[in-house]
Amino acid sequence: MAQEHDEEAQRQRRLRRERVRELFERLRATQDISCRDELIAMHIGLVEYLARRFSNRGEPYEDLLQVGFVGLIKAIDRYDLERGVEFTTYATPTIIGEIKRYFRDRSWTIRVPRRLQTRDAQLSQAVELLAQQLKRTPTIQEIADYMGISEEETVEVLESSHTANYISLDGANSDDADKGFSLLEQLGEEDREFFLSEHRAAISQMVGCLDPREQRILFMRFFQGMTQMEIARELGISQMHVSRLLTRILLKMREALGE
Amino acid sequence: MSAEEETVRLKATALPFYAQVVRVAVFLLASRLDFDLEQVEDLRIAVDEAWNHAVSHSAPQDEVEVEIGVKPGAMRITVTSPIGKGKEEPGDISQSFSRLILDAVCDDLRVEHEGGRCRITLSKLKEGRGSGGAGTR
What we know:
The complex is a heterodimer of chains A (about 260) and B (about 140).
Chain A: H1 2-30, H2 33-42, H3 44-53, H4 61-78, H5 87-106, H6 114-134, H7 140-147, H8 151-160, H9 169-172, H10 183-187, H11 200-208, H12 212-223, H13 228-235, H14 239-257
Helix pairs in contact in A: 1-2, 3-4, 3-5, 4-5, 6-7, 6-8, 7-8, 11-14, 12-14, 13-14
Chain B: E1 6-13, H1 19-32, H2 37-57, E2 63-71, E3 74-82, H3 97-105, E4 108-114, E5 117-125
Antiparallel strand pairs in B: 1-2, 2-3, 3-5, 4-5
Helix pairs in contact in B: 1-2, 2-3
């Protein structure tokens, strides 16, 4: 009984594969849109399955389904019968890629064009690499030359890189040895120079809104006068990340000041 | 670029958003001066602080004027803002948090209040503080 069932299932799968092949051949030969529609209908289950796998990450299942269908359509349009791979094997990474891209895009608070988001990652890499090669911080022109883009475009990427909503570093670095760090404790004698003693309460309030790592960065940059690159090395993160964190720190402090 | 200072002037409504427009102009000019990324990032912070200070005492319909002066190895940024009707005189920046930040990222800083206007002039040198290159910090 079980063997009969297996044989029937195999037969169904074979028929399905043949039908898919037939539809693709007809689609390529005639551009008949009904073939495309039938192929989409035949793979609804695959899209649903993949969308469900990503559905517990905070985005509505329906949205993921829609994005998944975009991936499926792309896969149908690009699939090459001659490659000899099954369509589902080909389509699965395309659909997952589309869903993942959707998550990536959604993690930006302000809509930044995809072109710039990709460039942002390339820029971070370029800065790190050039800094190592040159043994100093690169200039915008050097970054532009390295990336093969214009100076204007590099500036555009630099500017847009600060609009992203980045996940706090602290979650990823819970082993931070300086958890108990307090900026006020570190101010020591130097604070007289900055009239901070008179503003201790205000500063304390501002610093209180920062987490230990942010306090440490603030101290290193503005009290110890370390460069972003030096802080990056000290904390084992990229210079671009230090730059973004500084922007966030100052924003937080301004908010705390009520400015 | 000639040895004489060349200038770019921008006027924008006193709203936080326009800091972005100023930043882009500053970045491009800084690149022309061959400033390194570290110095460009310092300028980002400086422009944000100066703009924020200007906007804080201006009315939303007021205009803030930014003059960027460039000459080989040096950039000067002057942000002039009116003190808006019904707005308080800007606080004494000399003892403020903004001053601390600006001091840390600029090579020179001057703040003047006169005739109902506030003017912040800051400068950044290629071979000045915060340079990531060749130990010039």
